[in-house]
Each structure stands twice: as structure tokens, then as C-alpha cells.
């Protein structure tokens, strides 16, 4: 590609609303542009990287024996009613009507569609196991789309669904997919960890998430210092020995964030952002008709405060809830408000709707010098910082008895899940087994955040000059920068020649033939993050050399013109 004929949409200024480095650099390097909240156009430069990720994912999925399909993005409500998710899925589901008034949604995921397909197409155990995947646009109406394509509303996912006659077969495919995911993330060049994940509402089954280690990650993951044990924080909490730290009361049950309608519903009610704010939700007691139970504990994420919770909303579920001054609190409770945590510290909130039997405690409020009273803390959960309450902290013994735990931030780029018969049962997807008996199929599902990977890679690979692409997903592998080519036919010609030679050898090459100052060209190529750069200049050519610099190199080096290609190979 010639830069003079290519959309190099680089920007000097850091966009104000881009909070994390990958978002900033994707905008500045001219990879993406925002259309509306959570909706992005991929510019030619960005699309090249996205397609390379896609290609790697496709190759590895094909290698695993999975079959590629392409399902409609728009799905009829009937299937979702059949599985029960039309009412369960919550606000992330974008619903719409056609001209006849029929209900549809824009698929956030495709379990229903694939289950419907396979129950019609597959009749016998002989056709199983089978694994189907697609690489396709999903829509999730994220409560808080942010970080560019990292948490977009429209994004590209690879989703796969496997079907089996029994659990043993599902286990085998699950292992194959685990290996396939490792191959994908190895090839993309990410520093990642597979971690045990909680299977939440579906229960019982296995689940693993693949996390890219990065401080901007939205999830906490837990590792052992001395073994392979790794889990997301929800899973780690579920497994953790109570130890010395006071555990939630025994009768409390944990409900975890992924896909939990209860968390979403309660967070909505409170006017807070569940994905960002609520770390763990504890519920106790009988569920009411809305699936909510009496005691609710919202354990806020470390970087969030009660200030985000509207007092009037809290009042709705925790009566009586009043505002009181520090003085009033002290005299009413004997508690020093400061001992609980000043307003701006992260505070867990535990609210009991029936409340009466629990001792009253105090927590921060959304007004300076005021605290909420009448908020009921579960007795066995002490007041304290989030870290104390989530029941797993750095330095805890690892559940496997080897080493201690370390907690890091992760970006979820992949998720594999044994679904069991959740969808096949509700949607009656059966096959005849070897005895001619009808059995409900076992299913697995496997997701990769294809577009998120592009951003996650940048989070791990950048410096103050811009992106540093791993070769495998760089938009271009090699940049050839010609200096003064508009005045020097020798330089222009040598640039063209090298360009053809490298292209013929199979490299993706960007020939920067723009009539721009050298400094501008160098800065752009560095910002865009092209891994290898050759500079063609009159001075170099006079000595028979090109200048080479790897994007991570400190020093430039001169290379004889004839050795440029062998040097790269
Ligand atoms: P998250 O916890 O980040 O919301 P999820 O658990 O809801 O993700 P899954 O349903 O497991 O997501 O979907 C499979 C993969 O799709 C995720 O592992 C992630 O990489 C990607 N993904 C999910 N939501 C988004 C999004 N809003 N933008 C970009 N990628 C996403
Ligand atoms: Mg998740
Ligand atoms: Mg999500
Ligand atoms: Mg997930």
C-alpha cells in the first residue's frame, strides 16, 4: 500500500474522552472513529488488524474441527421466549419490531438460533459431536459502553456452540477448545492467563475465562504464586476457605455478576452501573416473584464509592433510611463515622428490606458530612474496605495449598462454558442415541472477543510514541519511508524496488511516499506501530545502505540494500 493513496488519519492530540491508552491510540493512529456511544467505524488501518485477528481465530477454529456458519444478526423473539431469555436477559438486549409489529432482537449471542438449527438438522448420535462457529457482529446495549472497542455496544465476536450425546463428549470438546484458545492467544501475541470462572446461574458446569493481564482490565483475577491455580475473583471467593477473615454469614448465598438478572435489576433500581460498580452481590432468603431476595449486599468495586448510589433509590429498598450528620450517628450508634470509612472511600452496602432483626450500622452517603442510617449491615460481615469483604486478598493461601494468592487486573478476551442442557432442554433439542432412545443434547459454548483483542493487544504493547504491534496482527509489517523522494528519483526508485521485493516475499508493506517532512512520517509510522521500518535516503543509497529500525529497538542500523529482505526473513 502507498501511504499517498491511503487514509492515514493520525492525530496529534489525545482525545479528551478516551480514558485508556488503547482507546487513545486507536483514535490517534486512525484505526477507529466513533459514530455514537459504543458504535465505531473501523478505518482501513484498523480493519487490517481486526482482519488479522479474525484470520488467526478462523484458522485455529478450523484446525480444531469446528465448522464455520453465519447466522442472522437479527433474531425472532419466539426463540428467546422458548428459552426463557426474552424476559430474563434484561437491558442489554436490543429489541425491535418489524413493520408487522413482530418482536425481534439484535443478537447479543446465538444459543437460541444455533439450538433451533441443530434440533432440526441433527437427528442421530452418529452426527455428533459437532461444533459450529461464526465470526459476526453482536449488539449488547451495554449500560456503560466505554474504552472504545474494548466495551462497545456493537462488536465482533467469534462464538461457537458444540453439541454432544453425553457429558463425556462435551468434556473432550471443551478440552480441545481450551487448547484452541491458547493457540489463538499465543499466535496473537498476548500475555494472557486462562482462569477458572464461575458458572453462575447455570451452575455446576465448568467455565474458563481467558484474561489479558493489564491494569486497565475491568476484572480481578487471582493467581497462586507457586502453582497454576488461577481464577476470576468471583470463583476464587466461592472457593476460598473462610480462614481468619470473617466470612459472609453461612446462610448467605453468592450470586455472581455474569449474566445475573438480579444484579442488573437491583443496580438499575439503585441507579448505579452494575458492571462497573457492583463487585459481588450477596442475597439471602426467599426469592420473591421478581427473583429478588430480602438481603442484598452490594460490594462496590475498589474505585467506586457510595456517592454513586442515589440515596433516594436506596431508601426504596432499605426503610427507614434517613440522612444523618456525623454527630447524630455517633450518638445513635456509638460508632465513629470515620471508623467506617469517609464518604469517599469505597464502602460496601448491605441492605435489608425487612431489616428489623439486624443491627443498624452506618455507611457513607452521597452528601458531604452525611451518612445513611437505617442501612442494615449483616452482622457477620464486618464493616470495612471492599478488600476485606470479598473474602480473598493478596497473600491468602491458594485453595490448592500451593503458594499464596496474587490479585491482578484482567481483560476478558475469551470465555468457554459447559452449558449442559440448559438450552437443549428448554428448546427440546434431542437426538437418538445408539439404543434408539431420544436424549437431550449436551452443549458447550465458546466466545472470543475479536474486536476487543485488538484493543487488549495495544494495552500490552505501546510506548510514549504509540502502538507497538506484534507482527501477527500489525496492520502492516514493514514501513518503507522514503526521504525527499519528490526531488530524488534515485530514492523514489529504490523505495519502489524495495516495496515490490518485500511484497513479493509476502510482507504487508506500507510505502510512505507522502510528500511530508521526515519527522512527520517517522512519527506517524511509530504512532501506527508498524514493527519494522526501512528508511531510504540519498545519503544511505550513496553508501549502498538502507536504515533499519525495529519498533522496539533503541538503535537504528544500516543494512546493505541487497540484504534488506534476508534481514527480515
Ligand atoms: P464482559 O464480562 O466483559 O461484559 P461477557 O462475559 O459479558 O464480557 P461473553 O458473553 O462471555 O462476554 O462473550 C464472549 C466474549 O465477547 C467476551 O469474553 C469478550 O471478549 C467479548 N465481549 C463481550 N462483551 C463485549 C463488548 N461489549 N465489547 C467488546 N467485546 C465484548
Ligand atoms: Mg464476563
Ligand atoms: Mg458483559
Ligand atoms: Mg464472559
In a nutshell, what does this entry contain?
By secondary structure, this protein is of the alpha+beta class.
Instruction: Report the portion of residues in β strands.
Output: 25-35%
Average pLDDT taken over every residue: 79
Instruction: Tell me, briefly, the overall form.
Output: elongated
Major beta-sheet overview: 9 strands, mixed
Class per helix and strand makeup = alpha+beta
Describe the oligomeric state of these chains in a short phrase.
Answer: single chain
Helical residue percent?
25-40%
How many helices?
Answer: 19
Low-confidence stretches: 241-263, 273-324, 332-390
Total number of strands: 30
Structure ligands: adenosine-5'-triphosphate, magnesium ion
> Over all CA atoms, what is the radius of gyration?
28 Å
Ends: how far apart?
20 Å
Keywords: Aminoacyl-tRNA synthetase, ATP-binding, Cytoplasm, Ligase, Nucleotide-binding, Protein biosynthesis
Domain Aminoacyl-transfer RNA synthetases class-II family profile: 38-470
EC number: 6.1.1.15
Family: Belongs to the class-II aminoacyl-tRNA synthetase family. ProS type 1 subfamily.
